Amino acid sequence: MDWYEDEDLWTGFSEVMFSPERSAQAARHVTGSPLLRFPAGARVLDQCCGMGVFTVPLARQGYAVTGVDLSPVMLARAERACADAGVKAELVRGDMREYVRPGAFDAVINLYTSFGYFEAPEENLRVLRNAHDSLAPGGRLVVDVMGKETYARWAGQPKVVEVPGGQVFMADTILDDWTRYRTEWTLVRDGTARRAALTCFVYSAAELRALFEAAGFTGVECFGGFGGEPYDNLATRLIVRGTRSG
Ligand SMILES: C[S@@+](CC[C@H](N)C(=O)[O-])C[C@H]1O[C@@H](n2cnc3c(N)ncnc32)[C@H](O)[C@@H]1O
């Protein structure tokens, strides 16, 4: 089993990745971010939707949202989140390397470091090609990851995150000459330790832009945050947006 298929990673560490604070922040991004503003009623594909942190507020905005995720557990949570919020979204179990619905969407999003998971570089490129081919002409893809330039400022320093009744210890290792990284997470609670690890590509803005262009996108732009800030020394995220031209 590859690390991204490990339900224990997504569910066991969900307090870190999918906290109520993050959901509130995502909802603010959906109403306020110029990068997540789409034409009224737009058809939006949420690639790797997880438990619907962005799916729900996007559906609430009136977009026709399709969420795709590999994990049945995460999809069940997304379904519950939609029901709790009183919104409708199509939820599909699928692999981002395989899922493609030609010309069916006005926007595709891939948010919160859900890209760069595959060891073979061409599989990550295929994810962008699938997004490109799923867009109608003029449609846009938005990918949000931690950029290499930003990550380099703190990578290697062990990090501790407080969670209810415990702590999560995080330690990173840089691999393959800054091509990829491995993060090991240990949740210590009630005298027990639970571990998980992930290995992911980390892209500079220039590398991710080149990948978008290789997948066929035009007008590729990089931003440093959901406010549309420049990708500079103050960037908190690397957000790349490209257009399917024809
Ligand atoms: C970091 S979470 C982000 C979820 C969501 N975008 C968010 O903002 O909360 C990554 C998600 O990718 C899903 N995933 C992992 N590998 C996948 C694959 N090959 N195809 C589709 N989804 C995948 C996981 O199940 C998980 O829900």
Would you give an account of this structure?
Keywords: Methyltransferase, S-adenosyl-L-methionine, Transferase. InterPro entries: Methyltransf_25, SAM-dependent_MTases_sf. GO terms for molecular function: methyltransferase activity. Pfam families: Methyltransf_25. It comes from Sphaerisporangium album. This protein is of the alpha/beta class and 246 residues long. The protein folds into two domains: 3-147 and 203-243, 3-Layer(aba) Sandwich (Rossmann fold), CATH 3.40.50; 150-199, N-terminal domain of TfIIb, CATH 2.20.25. It is built from eight helices and eleven strands. It has helices at 7-12, 14-17, 20-32, 55-60, 72-85, 121-134, 148-151, 205-214; strands spanning 43-47, 64-69, 90-93, 105-110, 135-145, 159-163, 166-175, 180-189, 192-201, 218-223, 238-243. The protein has a seven-stranded mixed sheet with strand order 3-2-1-4-5-11-10, sandwiched between helices. Strands 6-7-8-9 form a four-stranded antiparallel sheet. Strand 7 and strand 8 form a beta hairpin. The longest helix is centred in the N-terminal third of the chain and has 14 residues, at 72-85. It is globular, with a radius of gyration of 17 Å. The N and C termini lie far apart (38 Å). The model has no long low-confidence stretch (mean pLDDT 96). S-adenosylmethionine binds next to loops.
**Small molecules (ligands, ions, cofactors) in the structure:** S-adenosylmethionine
Largest sheet: 7 strands, mixed
User: CATH homologous superfamily of the largest domain, by name?
Assistant: Vaccinia Virus protein VP39
Determine Rg (CA atoms, Å). 17 Å
Which series of helices and strands comes N to C? HHHEHEHEEHEHEEEEHEE
Instruction: Kindly state the percentage of residues in helix.
Output: 25-40%
Strand line-up of the largest beta sheet = 3-2-1-4-5-11-10
Quaternary structure type:
single chain
State the distance separating the first and last CA atoms: 38 Å
Domain Methyltransferase: 44-139
GO molecular function: methyltransferase activity
Keywords: Methyltransferase, S-adenosyl-L-methionine, Transferase
GO biological process, one term: methylation
